[in-house]
Amino acid sequence: MKQKLKTHKAISKRIKITGTGKLLRRKVAISHLRRNKASRSVRAADKAFALARGDARRVRRLLPYAGR
Question: What Gene Ontology terms describe what this protein does at the molecular function level (predicted)?
Answer without folding.
Answer: structural constituent of ribosome
